């Protein structure tokens, strides 16, 4: 056979193979749509088209729009596709799912390939993502109690791939965990506007997963979560004891970590303190970076209120009121900000000046709820530890300066921070007369005016006792 004849025969064979593959693919698609359901098929397999075929290795390429789609289709449907093609009898033994080389915009093509209903879901996830842009990382007031969490949030939201994932942030209610989640989402979306970002509470995760199981749409649920390049889950403690939900959550974070996605999870406790949570989940969460947010101390509470006043551009709240709020509302940052907002709103509605009397009147209930009963015993122990003396010296008769001065400080703080009367305080300090307490209070007040070191000691002890 001459070269021309061989070429004509090869072209005819390729043509027959192509027609056979097209016909087989049409039949396979029909079967897959019937077996998987219209929605799942339309979302992931309908957009796929035939690519190159190698007769030597009997390998066929299926082309999809994005790398993510290729990974998902290969992982979820690879075996099914392989069996279907081998059964078709057209010489295909292996199926390789790849991103089409002519795919210009990977995320846009993937969205365009979805059904109308699903593209709406994905578009909402990519563009809206239900995070609140008003919570920005730049607006988060940083102090010693939250600096690590804020720094980790900055790294997680940055353009460079973070060195850790997941990020696990834990702390009490209202201390700023949710603010950081929304701030991360906003900052990440600013430099990667087409990257899918998904924020939800653990309770919402559980509810959507249960609904997906009931509607036989778990594959679509899985696909939606695994499409995220940034997944943020709030209050993970709420999936405690939910076996199937935890299993799905574990698979989700494993797949996302393997794909290079970023994950941020919050809880009210450290991972090792979470009860009824799968040990594999706890191991995964603890394997990234764990950052805590502790209760805000007095200095941070003051800084938060000053920041809110500056952002609002409202100079009608005087420093005296700011100080009153910071010292009175100690439970959490959210309640502190709420008290500030209430004062400003009431002042605007009533036309009254926001002075100390007005603040005390409007916030009386909140102040009572936050009032922690600091005891004289606590003050004595704190002062003894601060000045490095034996706590028993607070009640002793010794008058050495190294003992007398810390005792006077403790009496001063007992007068300022407890409702105890002067005679009661004197009795607690070793049966002393009330005049001794008065002398101690006046002495420390005078020293605070002239000695920066004494003033710093008093402030440090107040912060410790209050927070």
From TrEMBL:
ATP binds at residues 174, 176-178. Residues 163-297 form the AAA+ ATPase domain. The keyword ATP-binding applies. Residues 348-467 are annotated as: Domain IV, binds dsDNA. InterPro entries: AAA+_ATPase (IPR003593), Chromosome_initiator_DnaA (IPR001957), Chromosome_initiator_DnaA-like (IPR020591), Chromosome_initiator_DnaA_CS (IPR018312), DnaA_C (IPR013159), DnaA_dom (IPR013317), DnaA_N_dom (IPR024633), DnaA_N_sf (IPR038454). GO terms for biological process: DNA replication initiation; regulation of DNA replication. It comes from the Bacteria. Keywords: ATP-binding, Cytoplasm, DNA replication, DNA-binding, Lipid-binding, Nucleotide-binding. PROSITE patterns: DNAA (PS01008). Gene3D superfamilies: 1.10.1750.10, 1.10.8.60, 3.30.300.180, P-loop containing nucleotide triphosphate hydrolases (3.40.50.300). Residues 1-100 are annotated as: Domain I, interacts with DnaA modulators. Residues 375-444 form the Chromosomal replication initiator DnaA C-terminal domain. GO terms for cellular component: cytoplasm; plasma membrane. Belongs to the DnaA family. Domain I is involved in oligomerization and binding regulators, domain II is flexibile and of varying length in different bacteria, domain III forms the AAA+ region, while domain IV binds dsDNA. HAMAP family: DnaA_bact (MF_00377). This is Chromosomal replication initiator protein DnaA.
């Amino acid at each position: 056979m001459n070269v021309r004849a061989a070429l004509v025969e090869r072209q005819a064979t390729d043509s027959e193979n192509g027609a056979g593959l097209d016909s087989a693919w049409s039949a396979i698609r029909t079967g897959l749509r019937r077996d998987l359901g219209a929605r799942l098929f339309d979302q992931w397999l309908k957009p796929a088209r035939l690519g190159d075929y190698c007769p030597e290795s009997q390998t066929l390429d299926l082309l999809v729009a994005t790398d993510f789609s290729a990974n998902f289709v290969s992982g979820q449907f690879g075996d099914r596709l392989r069996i279907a093609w081998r059964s078709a009898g057209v010489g295909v033994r292996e199926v390789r799912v790849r991103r089409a080389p002519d795919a210009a915009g990977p995320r846009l093509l993937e969205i365009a390939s979805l059904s109308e209903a699903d593209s709406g879901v994905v578009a909402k996830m990519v563009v809206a993502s239900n995070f609140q842009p008003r919570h920005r990382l730049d607006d988060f007031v940083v102090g010693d109690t939250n600096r690590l969490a804020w720094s980790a949030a900055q790294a997680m939201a940055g353009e460079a791939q973070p060195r850790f994932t997941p990020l696990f942030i834990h702390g009490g209610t209202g201390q700023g965990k949710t603010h950081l989640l929304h701030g991360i989402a906003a900052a990440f979306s600013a430099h990667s506007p087409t990257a899918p970002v998904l924020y939800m509470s653990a309770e919402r995760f559980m509810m959507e997963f249960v609904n997906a199981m009931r509607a036989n749409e778990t594959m679509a649920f899985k696909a939606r979560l695994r499409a995220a390049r940034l997944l943020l889950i709030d209050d993970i403690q709420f999936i405690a004891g939910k076996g199937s939900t935890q299993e799905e959550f574990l698979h989700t974070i494993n797949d996302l970590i393997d794909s290079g996605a970023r994950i941020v999870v919050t809880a009210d406790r450290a991972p090792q303190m979470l009860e009824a949570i799968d040990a594999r989940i706890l191991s995964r969460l603890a394997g990234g970076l764990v950052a805590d947010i502790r209760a805000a101390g007095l200095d941070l509470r003051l800084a938060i209120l000053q920041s809110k006043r500056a952002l609002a551009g409202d100079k009608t709240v005087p420093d005296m009121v700011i100080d009153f709020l910071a010292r009175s509302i100690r439970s959490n940052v959210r309640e502190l900000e709420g008290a500030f907002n209430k004062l400003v709103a009431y002042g605007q509605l009533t036309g009254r000046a926001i002075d100390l009397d007005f603040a005390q009147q409007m916030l009386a209930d909140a102040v009572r709820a936050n009032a922690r009963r600091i005891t004289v015993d606590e003050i004595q122990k704190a002062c003894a530890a601060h000045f490095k003396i034996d706590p028993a010296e607070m009640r002793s008769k010794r008058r050495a300066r190294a003992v007398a001065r810390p005792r006077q400080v403790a009496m001063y703080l007992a007068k300022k921070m407890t409702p105890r009367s002067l005679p009661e305080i004197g009795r607690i300090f070793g049966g002393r007369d009330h005049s001794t307490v008065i002398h101690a209070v006046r002495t420390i007040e005078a020293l605070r005016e002239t000695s920066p070191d004494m003033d710093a000691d008093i402030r440090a002890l107040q912060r410790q006792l209050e927070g």
